[in-house]
Design a protein that fits this description.
Blueprint (H helix, E strand, L loop, with lengths): L11 H6 L14 E10 L6 E10 L2 E5 L11 E13 L1 E6 L15 H12 L4 H17 L2 E6 L4 H11 L2 E4 L2 E2 L5 H14 L6 E3 L1 E3 L7 H14 L3 E5 L3 H11 L3 H7 L7 E5 L7 H8 L2 E4 L1 H6 L8 H6 L3 E4 L12 H16 L6 H15 L17 E5 L13 H7 L5 E7 L2 E4 L1 H25 L19
Bound molecules: zinc ion.
Zinc ion binds next to loops.
Length: about 475
């Protein structure tokens, strides 16, 4: 019997996540052993193990490396296969999961025009469509190696339910937007987040839509609630030039600067888009330890332009995460594609190749995990890290030939069509070849009902955003 070697934790990326203890809380979960994986990547930029095994026990990675003979360990033993790559999970740090109901709906318009079409449908949505939309999105995420998402949408209970049914990690909470009483709205969000404290899979988040679609008092109060509860404070910011112009005219401050003045920048703060962030505002983000989320496909599709300063942000030590945004503004939730698009957009903006594959791989894994405030070690296969593992099958022509020296590049540039054979989240096997067909059938069934809803309501536009949460709206 070959010994399983303890993985090295000398890599810079691992150090950045802080030392982990291999000692873990005991649970009754069945151990899962992946045996004979062709490659295993511990984290972005980490050494690559070849012909290796990974043991997940009590919800955590407890060993990696070496080769075990069959039947050597109790629990669920899975033969990885000659073409398998075991990688850390990706996490989608910004999504509106239920919006798969709006995939391809009014797709070819700019942000503010597009939003009016979205608001028309959103005012007519029920919890049923929100659940079905989240379910389709969750299945899409699982099928493309994403183990969790931070959501900003109405009907957070339905997103949570879809995540639980699929075994995905999620951050959910009511979105605060429209003509709301800010104190009542934040109280509702606080109450919701508090209920989820201690849940190992689905946690809370305080979602305030933006500085232009929510009262400023909701930003100040919402941020305090997030800090008090230890959950992320999640907000769209500096997405368009118009937003910056309006903020300057109305408040005499740039959007991120305004958040600073409101006391809403801290380690809990997650700033989404930031394509029009001023270079000097990065100093505020760095000083307060806030995270930035890059959503390159959505920014290009909605023609919001600007430039997300990924390289400067990462070099200065700011945590950068990656997100897809909603399925109506991307229109994909595939984080493999998002990584490639991020590199391409960055190179197009910088006119050089300073942004490398490892930068975006880090953002999609460790960076997103940090922004979502997931347990320490998430986004790596470090010893003691949460048991979140994706085993990708590289047998797709676009990902071949695969070698140790091109593995990270294949994952970032050639893996849009890679589908995981197995996904383990929090130590539970949530995707396997047997489960795939069943999930696919569920997605098709849900999509049929979503189409019936879209046909029933027909096209239209609303000039005002829906008000949320409903209990805090000033007008019915
Ligand atoms: Zn968004």
């Amino acid at each position: 019997m070959h010994p399983i070697h303890r993985a090295s934790s000398t890599n810079k990326d691992l150090e950045a996540t802080g030392p982990l203890e291999a000692k873990v809380t005991m649970t009754n979960k069945e151990p899962i052993l992946f045996r004979n994986c062709r490659f295993a990547l511990t984290c972005s930029g980490c050494p690559i193990h070849e012909h290796t095994s990974i043991l997940i026990e009590n919800g955590h990675v407890v060993s990696i490396g070496g080769k075990l003979p069959s039947g050597g360990k109790a629990g669920h033993v899975i033969e990885c296969g000659e073409h398998s790559i075991a990688v850390p999970c990706m996490y989608n740090a910004h999504a509106h999961a239920a919006m798969s109901v709006l995939r391809g709906y009014y797709s070819d318009a700019e942000l503010h025009d597009w939003l009016q079409a979205m608001w028309f449908v959103e005012r007519r949505l029920s919890s049923r469509e929100a659940f079905l939309g989240s379910l389709v999105s969750g299945i899409e995420m699982l099928f493309s190696g994403t183990c969790g998402f931070m959501d900003m949408y109405f009907f957070p209970g339905e997103a949570a339910e879809a995540a639980r049914q699929l075994g995905l990690r999620a951050r959910v909470g009511p979105v605060i937007m429209g003509d709301v009483d800010p104190y009542r709205a934040v109280e509702e969000a606080r109450r919701y987040a508090r209920k989820l404290l201690g849940d190992p899979l689905v946690g809370g988040v305080i979602n305030v839509h933006s500085i232009y679609a929510a009262p400023l008092e909701a930003i100040r109060e919402g941020h305090s609630a997030a800090v008090e509860l230890g959950v992320p404070f999640h907000i769209h910011v500096s997405e368009t030039r118009r937003e910056v112009y309006e903020a300057k005219k109305r408040y005499g401050a740039f959007p991120v600067e305004l958040l600073g003045k409101l006391g809403a920048l801290s380690e809990n703060t997650v700033l989404v888009h930031a394509g029009w962030i001023a270079s000097w505002e990065l100093g505020l983000v760095k000083e307060k330890g806030s995270s930035l989320v890059h959503c390159p496909a959505s920014n290009m599709k909605l023609a919001t332009a600007g430039h997300f300063p990924l390289y400067e942000a990462m070099e200065s030590g700011i945590n950068v995460a990656l997100g897809t945004d909603g399925p109506a503004s991307n229109d994909s939730l595939n984080m493999f594609s998002e990584m490639k698009i991020a590199v391409l957009l960055q190179r197009h903006s910088y006119w050089d190749t300073r942004v490398k594959a490892h930068h975006v791989l880090r953002a999609a894994t460790i960076g997103s995990a940090r922004a979502m405030m997931l347990p320490r070690g998430a986004g790596t296969l470090q010893l003691g890290a949460p048991g979140d593992v994706v085993v990708v099958n590289s047998v797709t022509p676009s990902a071949l030939p695969l070698r140790r020296d091109n593995l990270e590049q294949v994952l970032v540039y050639s893996c849009e069509k890679c589908t995981p054979d197995y996904v383990v989240i929090n130590g539970e096997l949530v995707l396997s070849p047997e489960k795939k067909q069943q999930l696919l059938e569920e997605a098709v069934k849900a999509a049929k009902q979503l189409n019936e809803f879209i046909e029933r309501i027909g096209p239209g536009k609303e000039s005002k955003p829906p008000c949320s949460p409903r209990t805090a709206c000033r007008q019915a």
